[in-house]
Amino acid sequence: MKKNLMLTLALALVLTGCASLQLQPVDFSWASEEILDIASDGTVKAPRYYMEFNVKALLAKEFAADTMAAKNAKIVRIIRDKAGFYYMTAPNFKNVYVFQHGDGSLSLNNTIAVSPEKPMNDPKFNQRYTYIELLNNGAKLQLTKGGVQQGGAK
Fold first, then answer.
1. pLDDT tens track for 48-77
2. Is the pTM for the entire model greater than 0.90?
3. Contacts of residue 135, Cβ cutoff 8 Å, sequence gap at least 6
4. Distance between CA atoms of 137 and 89, rounded to whole angstroms?
């Protein structure tokens, strides 16, 4: 009986020690957007967040066959939401791209078509409690990783 009790107790301690640790809640949001200059090789750097990546693939996706528009891109705007998703856009984009971080990469999670008829002139991001606000030509959109949030004008 004592032997079984000791074995059960030892097993419980071992299994408890193997359980994963999870810290919650976590707020990954950035207080404000970052405006990043695109270097000639396509890299952008956000020194404040110790982040650097290449946007050539993003520019190719946004501008498709228009290589001149891709070459003329000078900045990209980026902000991070509470859940840790990155939202990116730039002047002359028609979309906002939502990325999630992986093992040394940013993977496209969603493409939000916000201005299909004409490119955005000077889009800006604002951090809000439950969404990311996109300002463009006086219009305000409420964005989440899934798209335009209910109540967000389009």
1. 999 999 999 999 999 998 888 888 999 999
2. no
3. 123, 124, 125, 126
4. 14
User: What is d(CA 57, CA 61) in angstroms, rounded to the nearest whole number?
Assistant: 6
- Please give the helix or strand (H or E) that residue 6 lies within, else none: helix 2-18
Per domain, the residue ranges of the chain are 24-148
Helix H or strand E segment including 136: strand 132-136
Amino acid 151 reads: G
In eight-state DSSP terms, residue 140 is E
What distance in Å separates the CA atoms of residue 147 and residue 110, rounded to the nearest whole number?
8
Contact 121, 91 (CB under 8 A): yes
Here the tokens at position 55 are 């946007």
Query: Residues 117-146: pLDDT tens digits?
Result: 899 999 999 999 899 999 998 899 999 999
